[in-house]
Amino acid sequence: MRRKHPSPALRPSLRTSSVIFGVVVISIIVASLFGWVAAELLTIYAFCLLTVAVSVGVAIAAAMPWEVPVKKIALD
């Protein structure tokens, strides 16, 4: 059996276009927030690395046997 009225070409409806536009806008917002969060996390990570490096440096300096200062010999 044939249809009397063939279906028109499928076009996205206004609702579908609105949903796609909303998803794109939300994706842009999330991407910008993720970029901000990533920068914040990178800053925290760098601060933690600096703290660890200073702690290790202090521990190494405390463990090193320091030499006594050399006394100057007076050549009178």
Strand content: under 5%
- The backbone outline, from C-alpha atoms, is rod-shaped
The H-and-E topology, N to C, reads as H
Average predicted local confidence, pLDDT = 72
Helix content: 55-70%
Main sheet? none
Number of helices: 1
Structural class: mainly alpha
How far apart the termini lie comes to 126 Å
Poorly predicted runs of 5 or more residues: none
Counting DSSP E segments of at least 2 residues, the number of strands comes to 0
Estimated radius of gyration: 35 Å
Protein architecture, described:
This protein is 66% helix and 0% strand. It is mostly helical.
Summarize the structure.
The chain is 66% helix and 0% strand. With 76 residues, it is an all-alpha fold.
Brief descriptors of the model:
rod-shaped, membrane, transmembrane helix, mainly alpha, 76 residues, 66% helix
Please render the helix and strand layout as text.
Elements: H1 14-63
